[in-house]
Design brief:
By secondary structure, the chain is mainly alpha-helical. Helices cover 66% and strands 3% of the residues. It is built from 11 helices and 2 strands; from the N terminus they run ααααββααααααα. Strand 1 and strand 2 form a beta hairpin. The N and C termini lie far apart (45 Å).
Length: 275
Protein backbone atom coordinates (compact mmCIF):
# COMPACT_ATOMS: atom_id res chain seq x y z
CA UNK A 1 0.00 0.00 0.00
CA UNK A 2 1.18 3.56 -0.68
CA UNK A 3 0.16 7.11 -0.03
CA UNK A 4 -2.82 6.83 -2.40
CA UNK A 5 -4.44 4.45 0.08
CA UNK A 6 -4.59 1.71 -2.56
CA UNK A 7 -2.54 -1.31 -3.65
CA UNK A 8 -1.01 0.78 -6.41
CA UNK A 9 2.81 0.76 -6.48
CA UNK A 10 4.35 3.68 -8.31
CA UNK A 11 6.96 2.58 -10.87
CA UNK A 12 8.15 3.71 -14.30
CA UNK A 13 7.40 0.57 -16.34
CA UNK A 14 5.48 0.69 -19.62
CA UNK A 15 2.70 -1.31 -17.96
CA UNK A 16 2.22 1.45 -15.39
CA UNK A 17 1.93 3.90 -18.27
CA UNK A 18 -0.89 1.95 -19.91
CA UNK A 19 -4.33 3.51 -19.72
CA UNK A 20 -6.37 2.07 -16.85
CA UNK A 21 -9.31 1.16 -19.10
CA UNK A 22 -6.94 -0.75 -21.40
CA UNK A 23 -5.64 -2.77 -18.46
CA UNK A 24 -9.19 -3.54 -17.36
CA UNK A 25 -10.06 -4.73 -20.86
CA UNK A 26 -6.90 -6.86 -20.91
CA UNK A 27 -7.94 -8.41 -17.59
CA UNK A 28 -11.43 -9.19 -18.92
CA UNK A 29 -10.17 -10.67 -22.20
CA UNK A 30 -7.50 -12.68 -20.36
CA UNK A 31 -10.16 -14.13 -18.05
CA UNK A 32 -12.52 -14.97 -20.94
CA UNK A 33 -9.63 -16.64 -22.78
CA UNK A 34 -8.80 -18.77 -19.74
CA UNK A 35 -12.39 -19.89 -19.18
CA UNK A 36 -12.70 -21.05 -22.79
CA UNK A 37 -10.42 -24.01 -22.10
CA UNK A 38 -9.84 -26.95 -19.83
CA UNK A 39 -6.25 -27.57 -20.89
CA UNK A 40 -3.28 -27.62 -18.52
CA UNK A 41 -0.88 -26.57 -21.29
CA UNK A 42 -2.79 -23.35 -21.88
CA UNK A 43 -2.90 -22.49 -18.17
CA UNK A 44 0.82 -23.13 -17.62
CA UNK A 45 1.62 -20.89 -20.60
CA UNK A 46 -0.61 -18.09 -19.32
CA UNK A 47 0.89 -18.33 -15.80
CA UNK A 48 4.40 -17.98 -17.24
CA UNK A 49 3.38 -15.02 -19.43
CA UNK A 50 1.59 -13.41 -16.48
CA UNK A 51 4.58 -13.58 -14.17
CA UNK A 52 6.86 -12.30 -16.94
CA UNK A 53 4.57 -9.26 -17.19
CA UNK A 54 4.74 -8.85 -13.39
CA UNK A 55 8.53 -8.92 -13.63
CA UNK A 56 8.46 -6.33 -16.41
CA UNK A 57 6.20 -4.17 -14.23
CA UNK A 58 8.91 -4.27 -11.50
CA UNK A 59 6.50 -5.75 -8.94
CA UNK A 60 8.54 -7.63 -6.35
CA UNK A 61 7.41 -10.98 -4.97
CA UNK A 62 7.57 -9.55 -1.44
CA UNK A 63 4.72 -7.16 -2.29
CA UNK A 64 2.39 -9.82 -3.66
CA UNK A 65 3.32 -12.99 -1.75
CA UNK A 66 0.46 -12.64 0.77
CA UNK A 67 -2.18 -12.50 -1.96
CA UNK A 68 -0.49 -15.35 -3.84
CA UNK A 69 -0.45 -17.61 -0.78
CA UNK A 70 -4.08 -16.78 -0.03
CA UNK A 71 -5.16 -17.79 -3.55
CA UNK A 72 -2.96 -20.92 -3.50
CA UNK A 73 -4.40 -22.08 -0.16
CA UNK A 74 -7.96 -21.39 -1.35
CA UNK A 75 -7.25 -23.35 -4.55
CA UNK A 76 -5.89 -26.31 -2.60
CA UNK A 77 -8.98 -26.46 -0.39
CA UNK A 78 -11.18 -26.18 -3.47
CA UNK A 79 -9.36 -29.11 -5.10
CA UNK A 80 -9.71 -31.27 -2.00
CA UNK A 81 -13.42 -30.46 -1.83
CA UNK A 82 -13.78 -31.35 -5.51
CA UNK A 83 -12.07 -34.71 -5.00
CA UNK A 84 -14.38 -35.57 -2.10
CA UNK A 85 -17.60 -34.48 -3.82
CA UNK A 86 -16.96 -35.71 -7.37
CA UNK A 87 -14.15 -38.31 -7.14
CA UNK A 88 -14.88 -39.78 -10.60
CA UNK A 89 -15.76 -36.64 -12.57
CA UNK A 90 -12.37 -36.51 -14.27
CA UNK A 91 -12.87 -40.04 -15.58
CA UNK A 92 -16.18 -39.02 -17.14
CA UNK A 93 -14.44 -36.18 -18.99
CA UNK A 94 -11.37 -38.19 -20.03
CA UNK A 95 -13.28 -41.32 -21.02
CA UNK A 96 -10.88 -43.57 -19.06
CA UNK A 97 -11.04 -44.98 -15.52
CA UNK A 98 -7.90 -45.58 -13.42
CA UNK A 99 -8.29 -45.97 -9.66
CA UNK A 100 -5.83 -44.05 -7.52
CA UNK A 101 -7.32 -44.34 -4.04
CA UNK A 102 -10.30 -46.29 -2.75
CA UNK A 103 -11.84 -46.31 0.71
CA UNK A 104 -15.40 -47.44 1.27
CA UNK A 105 -17.64 -45.86 -1.38
CA UNK A 106 -15.04 -43.21 -2.19
CA UNK A 107 -13.06 -44.02 -5.32
CA UNK A 108 -10.70 -41.27 -6.49
CA UNK A 109 -9.27 -41.76 -9.98
CA UNK A 110 -6.09 -40.55 -11.61
CA UNK A 111 -8.19 -38.69 -14.16
CA UNK A 112 -9.94 -36.71 -11.40
CA UNK A 113 -6.60 -35.91 -9.80
CA UNK A 114 -5.38 -34.52 -13.12
CA UNK A 115 -8.65 -32.65 -13.56
CA UNK A 116 -8.22 -31.08 -10.08
CA UNK A 117 -4.68 -30.02 -10.98
CA UNK A 118 -5.92 -28.54 -14.26
CA UNK A 119 -8.74 -26.67 -12.53
CA UNK A 120 -6.34 -25.31 -9.90
CA UNK A 121 -3.99 -24.00 -12.57
CA UNK A 122 -6.99 -22.47 -14.33
CA UNK A 123 -7.71 -20.33 -11.28
CA UNK A 124 -4.04 -19.53 -10.72
CA UNK A 125 -3.57 -18.42 -14.33
CA UNK A 126 -5.92 -15.49 -13.69
CA UNK A 127 -3.92 -14.40 -10.63
CA UNK A 128 -0.90 -12.72 -12.34
CA UNK A 129 -3.00 -10.45 -14.57
CA UNK A 130 -5.23 -9.54 -11.62
CA UNK A 131 -2.20 -8.60 -9.52
CA UNK A 132 -0.83 -6.65 -12.47
CA UNK A 133 -4.04 -4.67 -12.69
CA UNK A 134 -4.28 -3.99 -8.95
CA UNK A 135 -0.65 -2.99 -8.40
CA UNK A 136 -0.05 -0.92 -11.55
CA UNK A 137 -3.32 1.02 -11.84
CA UNK A 138 -3.78 4.29 -9.99
CA UNK A 139 -7.41 4.33 -8.74
CA UNK A 140 -8.14 7.90 -9.82
CA UNK A 141 -6.51 7.46 -13.22
CA UNK A 142 -8.46 4.25 -13.74
CA UNK A 143 -11.74 5.93 -12.81
CA UNK A 144 -11.11 8.78 -15.25
CA UNK A 145 -10.30 6.26 -17.98
CA UNK A 146 -13.58 4.45 -17.42
CA UNK A 147 -15.44 7.73 -17.60
CA UNK A 148 -13.65 8.60 -20.81
CA UNK A 149 -14.85 5.44 -22.60
CA UNK A 150 -18.47 6.13 -21.68
CA UNK A 151 -18.93 4.70 -18.17
CA UNK A 152 -20.99 7.14 -15.98
CA UNK A 153 -18.68 8.99 -13.64
CA UNK A 154 -20.71 7.87 -10.61
CA UNK A 155 -19.94 4.24 -11.47
CA UNK A 156 -16.31 5.10 -12.22
CA UNK A 157 -15.94 6.86 -8.90
CA UNK A 158 -17.49 3.88 -7.09
CA UNK A 159 -14.77 1.69 -8.62
CA UNK A 160 -12.17 4.25 -7.52
CA UNK A 161 -13.40 4.07 -3.91
CA UNK A 162 -13.54 0.26 -4.00
CA UNK A 163 -9.90 0.02 -5.08
CA UNK A 164 -8.84 2.45 -2.36
CA UNK A 165 -10.91 0.63 0.24
CA UNK A 166 -9.15 -2.77 -0.07
CA UNK A 167 -6.07 -1.85 2.03
CA UNK A 168 -8.25 0.12 4.48
CA UNK A 169 -10.25 -3.03 5.25
CA UNK A 170 -6.99 -4.96 5.68
CA UNK A 171 -5.63 -2.40 8.15
CA UNK A 172 -8.92 -2.35 10.05
CA UNK A 173 -8.89 -6.15 10.30
CA UNK A 174 -5.35 -6.05 11.71
CA UNK A 175 -6.41 -3.49 14.31
CA UNK A 176 -9.39 -5.63 15.36
CA UNK A 177 -7.18 -8.73 15.62
CA UNK A 178 -4.70 -6.82 17.80
CA UNK A 179 -7.54 -5.62 20.04
CA UNK A 180 -8.91 -9.16 20.35
CA UNK A 181 -5.46 -10.56 21.14
CA UNK A 182 -5.13 -7.97 23.91
CA UNK A 183 -8.31 -9.49 25.37
CA UNK A 184 -6.85 -12.99 25.30
CA UNK A 185 -8.31 -14.28 22.02
CA UNK A 186 -5.80 -16.54 20.24
CA UNK A 187 -4.96 -16.13 16.55
CA UNK A 188 -1.41 -17.54 16.63
CA UNK A 189 -0.84 -21.18 15.69
CA UNK A 190 1.45 -21.53 18.70
CA UNK A 191 -1.37 -20.64 21.08
CA UNK A 192 -4.33 -22.58 19.65
CA UNK A 193 -5.28 -25.30 17.17
CA UNK A 194 -6.53 -24.56 13.68
CA UNK A 195 -10.23 -25.09 14.49
CA UNK A 196 -9.99 -22.85 17.55
CA UNK A 197 -8.30 -20.15 15.50
CA UNK A 198 -10.90 -20.40 12.73
CA UNK A 199 -13.62 -19.99 15.36
CA UNK A 200 -11.81 -16.96 16.78
CA UNK A 201 -11.56 -15.36 13.33
CA UNK A 202 -15.36 -15.40 13.17
CA UNK A 203 -15.38 -13.00 16.14
CA UNK A 204 -13.77 -10.25 14.04
CA UNK A 205 -16.46 -10.31 11.34
CA UNK A 206 -19.09 -8.28 13.23
CA UNK A 207 -16.67 -5.51 14.33
CA UNK A 208 -15.25 -5.40 10.81
CA UNK A 209 -18.73 -5.14 9.30
CA UNK A 210 -19.76 -2.35 11.69
CA UNK A 211 -16.52 -0.47 11.02
CA UNK A 212 -17.04 -0.83 7.25
CA UNK A 213 -20.59 0.50 7.46
CA UNK A 214 -19.41 3.49 9.51
CA UNK A 215 -16.72 4.21 6.93
CA UNK A 216 -19.29 4.03 4.11
CA UNK A 217 -21.52 6.52 5.95
CA UNK A 218 -18.62 8.94 6.50
CA UNK A 219 -17.61 8.83 2.81
CA UNK A 220 -21.23 9.19 1.69
CA UNK A 221 -21.80 12.26 3.90
CA UNK A 222 -18.55 13.85 2.71
CA UNK A 223 -19.55 13.37 -0.94
CA UNK A 224 -23.02 14.80 -0.32
CA UNK A 225 -21.53 17.89 1.34
CA UNK A 226 -19.37 18.46 -1.74
CA UNK A 227 -22.34 18.19 -4.09
CA UNK A 228 -21.23 14.94 -5.73
CA UNK A 229 -23.64 13.88 -8.49
CA UNK A 230 -25.16 17.32 -9.04
CA UNK A 231 -23.75 17.72 -12.54
CA UNK A 232 -23.88 15.32 -15.48
CA UNK A 233 -20.17 15.68 -16.19
CA UNK A 234 -17.05 16.26 -14.12
CA UNK A 235 -13.32 16.76 -14.55
CA UNK A 236 -10.55 14.51 -13.24
CA UNK A 237 -7.22 15.33 -11.65
CA UNK A 238 -5.65 12.11 -12.96
CA UNK A 239 -6.34 11.61 -16.65
CA UNK A 240 -4.39 9.98 -19.50
CA UNK A 241 -4.88 10.09 -23.23
CA UNK A 242 -4.68 6.91 -25.28
CA UNK A 243 -1.21 6.29 -26.70
CA UNK A 244 0.08 3.99 -29.45
CA UNK A 245 0.97 1.31 -26.92
CA UNK A 246 -2.56 1.51 -25.51
CA UNK A 247 -4.00 0.79 -28.96
CA UNK A 248 -1.48 -2.04 -29.36
CA UNK A 249 -2.67 -3.69 -26.15
CA UNK A 250 -6.27 -3.16 -27.21
CA UNK A 251 -5.55 -5.15 -30.37
CA UNK A 252 -3.76 -7.81 -28.33
CA UNK A 253 -6.77 -8.11 -26.01
CA UNK A 254 -9.27 -8.53 -28.84
CA UNK A 255 -6.86 -10.80 -30.71
CA UNK A 256 -6.64 -13.01 -27.64
CA UNK A 257 -10.40 -13.60 -27.76
CA UNK A 258 -10.34 -14.36 -31.51
CA UNK A 259 -7.45 -16.83 -31.12
CA UNK A 260 -9.16 -18.41 -28.11
CA UNK A 261 -12.42 -18.99 -30.00
CA UNK A 262 -10.48 -20.47 -32.94
CA UNK A 263 -8.49 -22.86 -30.72
CA UNK A 264 -11.63 -23.84 -28.81
CA UNK A 265 -13.41 -24.81 -32.03
CA UNK A 266 -10.45 -26.62 -33.62
CA UNK A 267 -7.57 -27.94 -31.52
CA UNK A 268 -8.53 -27.62 -27.84
CA UNK A 269 -12.18 -28.57 -27.72
CA UNK A 270 -12.28 -30.81 -24.65
CA UNK A 271 -10.54 -31.61 -21.36
CA UNK A 272 -6.91 -32.51 -22.11
CA UNK A 273 -5.71 -35.74 -20.48
CA UNK A 274 -2.37 -36.96 -21.92
CA UNK A 275 -2.19 -40.40 -20.26
Amino acid sequence: MNRTGSLYIEKTSFIHNLNGAVKLLLLICWTVFIFLFMDLRVFLSMIIIGFILLKMAQISFKKIKTLIWFVVIFTIFNSIFLLLITPEYGSELAGTYSTFFEIGNLNITYETLFFSLTLSLKYLSILPITLLFLFTTHPSEFASSLNKIGIPYKVAYAVNIALRYIPDVTDEMKNIINAQEARGVCFNKKDAGIFKRLKNYVTILIPLLISSLNRVEIVSNAMDLRGFGRYKKRTWYHQKTFSIIDFLFLMISFGMIIVGIYLKNTLLKNFWYPF
